Amino acid sequence: MERDRDRFVKPTALVIGGGLHGASAATQLARSGFRVTVVEKNYAGRHASGVNAGGVRRLGRHPAEIPLAVAALERWQRLEALIGDDGGFHPCGQIKVAENDENMARLVSRAAEVRELGFDHEITLSRDELRRRVPAVAPHCVGALACDGDGAANPYRTLTAWRRQSQREGAIWREGVRVTRVDRAPGGGWRLSTDHPDLPGLDADWLINCAGGWAGELCGALDECVAMQAQALMLTITERVTPFLGPVIGSASRALSFKQMDNGSVMIGGGIAGCIDTGGERADVRLAGLAENVQTALGLFPFMRDVRVVRTWAGIEGVTGDGIPVLGLSWRHPRLIHSFGYSAHGFQLSAITGEIVRDLALEREPALPIAPFDIRRFDSSSAAARASHTH
Amino acid sequence: MKTIPLAIIGAGPAGMAAARTAARHGLRPVVFDEQPAPGGQIYRALESTPLRDPELLGQDYWHGRSLIEALRREPVDYRPGHMVWQLTRAGEIGVLAGDTAALIRAERVVLATGAQERPFPVPGWTLPGVMGAGAAQVLLKTSGVVARAPMILAGSGPLLYLVAVQYLRAGASVAAILETTPQENRRLALAHIGGAIRGWRYLRKGAGLLRELKRAGVRHERHVVALRAEGEEALTGVGWRTAERPDDWQHCEATTLLLHHGVVPNVQMTRALGGEHDWSEQQLCWRPRRDAFGRSDIENFFIAGDGGGIGGARAAQLQGELAALAALESLGHIDGPTLAREAAPVRRKLDAELVVRPFLDALYRPGDSWRRPDDEVVVCRCEEISAGEIRRVARLGCAGPNQMKSFTRCGMGPCQGRLCGLTVSEILAAENGQSLEQTGYYRLRPPFKPITLGQLASAAGDAPGAPAWNETETAS
């Protein structure tokens, strides 16, 4: 009886995409009284959410993302209390290395820019201080920008923790179910068709687009304008080596993310794109790109030359034209919320994006500024409307 | 990136036969061979083995000589010591030679990567002194090295007898053969006796090997139902129980234990390419999909030999010829009628060669408890994941091997899942009450075998100073 009454009283939400942002949104929506169903075409964390580099980073964020990243870190610090597992988060710090004076000058002005915005988490390191923190770094490096308190976590473990938490809050997960059609239902809600024989149709009041690399496709079906591309971002992992590195290392001038994991193996990435096959479900590494990525890493850590690679892979991620996500309400459809296009740096933000989606679905102002992530920035016809709305 | 018309990966019987066929039709193929000399595993080190006595390794071994001679004589660009570490559906091949990685594109690729030993996880199988019988045979062929006595061989299948006999002939002392073939296999195999009689050559060879072992007085234990390798730092002995004395652990001292449960296709490359694989209940292994000519379901890729299903060396050679013909036809190098005409006799011989397989597969089929070991047995050697841990994670809702990797790192070490993949899939399928097809297998990722960061960086394709594919190099 209780459940039956719920059915009429509780608003319903359908989250498309069982990745980190979908799981985060599902958790917060379910906790706030929505009946939530997550629809995932494969299995939770199949693509970028399950196989990314696991960087928990405020360092070097786009200015628009800084407030979200700062709030997200606060969630990461008490993740175990929030979702029952810390996701393997280690606040080992992140460091962006300058290889010459010109690099260093850019890092110094970046630190000043962040301070001007009212944040103090990015600090510059002298050559000696860099050497003290990262003794293994190549001697030509002149200094660095660092962010203490940042670090790294285990992506699949984090995703699993969010998924479980959402389930404890009452969300239902439907894995192996692909949405084939999206229609408006009479009465202002949504009706989804799927390829699953047991679930021909799904109805809900709210639709949440967390479809990652496939979000652009969904936007197309919804007649939303967005500049977004699915990309397969590559990573390389080595055999285990004696611990030599604490913080996660990036480069001021080259695409690189370099870190040693707990078990001693070293992960090398940097958002270098591989290939996606025509079906769109398979990501392949691109040899030349991997080789260049590894060359960059060896430039900073030449002693790694004889360490063996045990594995390379690519995870499919949605990358927007301007490199920052789409997070906010649709202006074309009522009761549609977008949360996608995190462009290879959404792992850290996933700790906060669910709360923003929840606020939007509760039709209240989110506590953090999200105007820069408005989807209308990609729609030239509504540029005027946006200008009038935002200020 | 240089483009070549035809690449052949592997130089065992299938690869060598494919190369010979292509060369005889006027197309010069490039053969990438990880090994330093042609022959694959079966004809390994045939040109250089110190064991020149033809009786010692047997006539099936020396049969490889004509193929190797053809490879050396015909216009084939044979590249020994070239390890293929990556392959894409577009025909991009990542090759490592020495310390230099290079990229080449091939319009057609014949995969002739052969078989590997089936994983045989028992308590203590990670101890030094325990190795695969196939690996031990490689040592014998390459260097004539005879493992220190006393040695014990355990498992099932014709190779087990063959290796025992070869070691005996080379002067080793074989303390015991522990045969794990389940009792009922003999009865089940009888259903296929017709094929066996037509494949009499194999039966005669097997009977001969058994007689030789008996004459040498080797202890032969049958119906072994449990096995353990014993020792702290290294193997010191082997314990076992038999169906007849199921409660008694018997024991024998040994410093070498050779394990063997037959061979299975090496599917690292076909898996990495994303081809379809079917579970063979007859051979208890994955087989990449291929047609009667060896055409795979991946455009421009052909599969020859045991890499597509276990048929043995003679069958592999015939499949190599067929795959080369099919590749030549798809390149427009020969026409359809020529393909049909030349393939017909080869296919007849192949059918005759394969007729004994159902009998052998049934006779030497490893029992369930060997393939799905007890909880305490380590399954993934690289990450030290036990069968019990795999079952525990399955109960948490892990349906497939790829999620298992994310949960436990199982299968993510340097061996790329070669030594645990089949076991993990079989345990998960049994635990979840699913078929093997539903359960699936690891998604394979390059490199197929470890290469160093320095070697990988040397392939930085368009970067200045990158090694060019050396067109004039011919090693033979």
Q: How are the elements arranged and paired?
A:
The complex is a heterodimer of chains A (391) and B (476).
Chain A lengths: L1 H8 L2 E5 L3 H12 L3 E6 L7 H4 L3 E2 L9 H12 L1 H5 L10 E5 L2 H16 L6 E3 L1 H7 L9 E5 L3 E2 L2 H14 L3 E4 L3 E6 L5 E5 L6 E4 L1 E4 L5 H7 L6 E13 L7 E4 L5 E4 L4 E5 L5 E2 L6 E2 L2 H14 L7 E13 L5 E4 L6 E5 L9 H12 L21 H8 L1
Helix pairs in contact in A: 2-8, 2-11, 4-11
Chain B lengths: L1 E8 L3 H12 L5 E3 L21 H4 L1 H4 L2 H9 L3 E3 L2 E6 L4 E6 L2 E12 L3 E3 L12 E3 H11 L7 E6 L1 H12 L4 E6 L5 H6 L2 H6 L1 H16 L3 E3 L2 E7 L6 E6 L7 E4 L2 E6 L1 E3 L2 H5 L4 E4 L4 E4 L12 E3 L9 H18 L5 H19 L2 H7 L4 H4 L6 E3 L4 E2 H9 L5 H8 L12 H12 L3 H4 L11 E2 H5 L19
Parallel strand pairs in B: 1-2, 1-6, 2-3, 6-19, 8-15, 9-10, 9-15, 10-11
Antiparallel strand pairs in B: 4-5, 5-6, 7-16, 12-13, 13-14, 17-18, 20-21
Helix pairs in contact in B: 1-4, 1-11, 5-6, 6-9, 11-12, 15-17
> How far is the N terminus from the C terminus of chain B?
24 Å
**The first-level CATH class name of the largest domain in chain B:** Alpha Beta
Q: Which percent range describes the beta-strand content of chain A?
A: 25-35%
Report the helical percentage of chain A: 25-40%
For the CA atoms, what is the radius of gyration of chain A?
21 Å
Kindly report the name of the CATH homologous superfamily of the largest domain in chain B.
FAD/NAD(P)-binding domain
Task: Name the helicity range of chain B.
Answer: 25-40%
The count of β-strands of chain B is 22
Number of domains of chain B: 3
The CATH architecture term of the largest domain in chain B is 3-Layer(bba) Sandwich
